[in-house]
Specification:
- Helix content is about 30%, strand content about 20%.
- With about 140 residues, it is of the alpha/beta class.
- It contains 5 helices and 7 strands; from the N terminus they run βββαβαβααββα.
- Strands 3-5-4-6-7 form a 5-stranded mixed sheet, sandwiched between helices. Strands 1-2 form a two-stranded antiparallel sheet.
- α2 links the parallel β4 and β5.
- It has one domain: Glutaredoxin (3-Layer(aba) Sandwich).
């Protein structure tokens, strides 16, 4: 390709050796992501949007300070997610996002968040993929497995 510069009569040759591929989306992380605990309904909606835009499934763990089983399960879930082991051994490249929803936070208690996501007992795990609920678990024994 030749470009004629207006100020001179010389011709400049430009070689295009290669065009690097680029993307405007965020790079895929090789680790599971743990988000800041949710204390406000808007923060949950924002976290769901973030996981949707990064094409990462999101596990939400609904708990409360007054819930004894929540206090037992929470550290186990955090250990599993932070260990960066794949949530599904059949698909080791698939990573997840994780967030704890503090159901007893004042802003959450006064909202319809529990009704919007059909939270009828604590603890509850709700899994989102592409912004939609795809799985739900309320049985503590199953959560421990």
């Amino acid at each position: 390709m030749a470009i004629r510069l207006p100020s001179t009569a010389s011709t400049v040759r430009v070689c295009i050796r290669s065009i690097r591929q680029f993307s405007s989306s965020a790079p895929h992380s090789s680790k599971n992501r743990i988000y800041t605990p949710i204390r406000h309904p808007a923060a949950l909606h924002e976290t769901i949007l973030l996981s949707t835009s990064s094409r990462t499934p999101l596990i939400t763990y609904w708990s409360a300070g007054y819930c004894p089983p929540c206090k037992v399960i929470s550290p186990i879930l955090h250990q599993i997610i932070s260990s960066d082991s794949p949530p599904c051994p059949a698909d080791p490249g698939n990573k997840v996002g994780f967030v704890e929803v503090e159901f007893d936070a004042p802003e959450n208690m006064g909202s319809s968040l529990g009704m919007d996501f059909i939270i009828s007992s604590l603890p509850t795990l709700v899994v989102f993929d592409r912004g939609e609920v795809v799985d739900r678990e309320t049985d503590v024994k199953n959560m421990m497995d």
